[in-house]
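Hey all, quick one. A colleague (J.T.) asked me to put the iron/sulfur cluster job into the tracker so the inputs and the structure tokens live in one place instead of scattered across chat threads. No bug as far as I know, just bookkeeping. Sequence used:
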Amino acid sequence: MTEPRKLFIKTYGCQMNVYDSERMAEAMGGQGYVETQDPAEADMILLNTCHIREKAAEKVYSELGRYKALKAEKPDLKIGVAGCVAQAEGEEIMRRQPLVDLVVGPQSYHRLPELEAKARSGAKALDTDFPVEDKFEHLKARPKARRGPTAFLTVQEGCDKFCAFCVVPYTRGAEVSRPAPRVLTEARDLVERGVREITLLGQNVNAYHGHDGGLAGLIRELAAIDGLERIRFTTSHPNDMDDALIAAHGEVDKLMPYLHLPVQSGSDRILKRMNRQHTADQYLKLIERLRSVRPDLHMSGDFIVGFPEETEEDFQVTLDLVEAVQYGSAFSFKYSARPGTPAAERPLVDQAEADERLQRLQALLTRQQRALQDAMVGREVGVLFEKAGRMPGQLVGKSDYLHAVHVADAGARIGEIARVKIVESGPNSLRGVLV
Ligand code: SAH
Ligand code: SF4
Ligand code: F3S
């Protein structure tokens, strides 16, 4: 028997890329590849890339540069670029870095086996189509191996919102939903293999329309699967949070009390220029409605500071909005002009000022995050144990609110959900004891 070929995948960007990397590894498994964690022993290196900010995209080229020596040593090594940089830059990648053999976009990676064969034959292989066929239907059934207790499951892809700063509508294409029966089959299959928590993924996951009842309808059907204990979804757009989904947060026990709902800015003037199609007040009202059905809901969000024309007053109202919401966690970024987006045409704000705003916002968000985490001390929460901790007998898992929780002498198993009393709050995690 010949040695299997080895595949090294490095993943950047969002959770959907994590899911896609899994599916690409599975597709390459059909070609006789096994995964390795060491690029030096790989026969193929695949970078699954992100184009969202300039820094993310540039990382890809510095990483590729690092593989020059490997390729010189091992001429048979094939190097591929997948994901959103592949979609955005296509052939340009091979021009800029000639050691790249293969470029595949996020909507055509079911064709990876053919592309790999083409690259093996010595030709350059490129596919950045938005094919009409459903890539998931063309990927082989997922292998039956046991899995860890949590999994991502992509149910929706693409975006029709065209926020003025964002590349996603161009790299991922128009909104498409996977039909509910296929999602349910994949979910049951994951549960049979040990998965207890599923996070439904979509660039605008709450715009899901593969079920008559929308995302709420899909969640209610998933909740009926025995053995599936927790459901989460990400990322949502405020304008797609419909009544049914709000109601589900109050009624479906398995739907976890944590919601990532990006707002980007608290200033209506900036929201308008961002083409977000909602006001700060509409966002706050929405959270009020959500909290009226689920008072303990932990909110998470995304913010951009230094968007073109953002003034100190605009920024102040963003801080006010953050004060009003009290986030359990949040991500904030300095605006990065992306080629091809409408905002890229507009002049940048003073960059030193933007950096300083980002620091102030992050300090506030960190304080809130820590306050909500500290408030868990003394409370009982559900924890799904995901892995062994550093100390013998210790287990680490996630609370219902997505806090990392360490439990010593857990006497429980990975994959189990236990009631845990929180006794201490550290910088990045909680410590608890079984009740
Ligand atoms: N679909 C999701 C977000 C996808 S991108 C949504 O609408 O919320 C994830 C986050 O990256 C965004 O929420 C935004 O905060 C940030 N982002 C996107 N484009 C950016 C840019 N050009 N500069 C800085 N941050 C950006
Ligand atoms: Fe980008 Fe806006 Fe679409 Fe989110 S909703 S993916 S930020 S265009
Ligand atoms: Fe990045 Fe593409 Fe995700 S640009 S954030 S990898 S959708």
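Adding what we noticed when we looked at it: Residues 144-256 form a domain with the Transcription Regulator spoIIAA fold (CATH 3.30.750.210). The longest strand covers residues 380-388.
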